[in-house]
Inverse folding.
């Protein structure tokens, strides 16, 4: 996730290397939206990468062995999915991609269509508590409508997610 956040901030970094919010409110709001998108997509990619690794590799890499919480469950899953044919594996990967995309799309839609109110995500200055940016303010696109653009810009699995 860190790399994606740095990528988004890269256009908005001061001479000291520290992130700086743009002066114009509309630009701050767009930056906040992109930061949110980068975070959402980094989480999607993280979980898809874990699942695809188990599906595609019968042995965990050294890095994966250090990360996993339940080694027995991981090894059992790798044995089970290792017996899949390439066609079956592709079907499971497609189902995973569609499901993850659908869950996130539905969650964002639920936030957009919150019962009895309009929700907004607002960024505040950590020191002064002054409002810096609003993800929803001035946007013509709801959060769920932004998901496709976020996937296109940030995802390592855009092909898999767009097919879903």
């Amino acid at each position: 996730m860190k790399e994606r956040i740095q990528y988004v901030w890269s256009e908005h970094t001061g001479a000291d290397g520290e992130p700086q919010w743009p002066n114009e409110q509309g630009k701050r709001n767009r930056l906040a939206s992109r930061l949110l998108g980068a975070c959402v997509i980094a989480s999607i990619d993280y979980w898809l990468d874990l699942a695809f690794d188990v599906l595609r590799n019968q042995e965990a890499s050294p890095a994966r062995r250090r990360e996993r919480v339940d080694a027995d469950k991981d090894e059992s899953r790798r044995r089970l999915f290792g017996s899949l044919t390439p066609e079956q594996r592709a079907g499971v990967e497609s189902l995973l991609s569609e499901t993850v995309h659908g869950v996130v799309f539905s969650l964002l839609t639920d936030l957009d269509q919150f019962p009895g109110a309009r929700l907004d995500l607002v960024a505040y200055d950590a020191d002064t508590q002054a409002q810096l940016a609003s993800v929803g303010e001035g946007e013509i696109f709801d959060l769920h409508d932004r998901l496709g653009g976020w996937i296109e810009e940030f995802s390592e699995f855009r092909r898999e997610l767009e097919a879903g």
The helical segments are 2-9, 25-56, 62-67, 71-82, 86-112, 143-154, 158-163. Residues 2-45+85-163 form one domain.
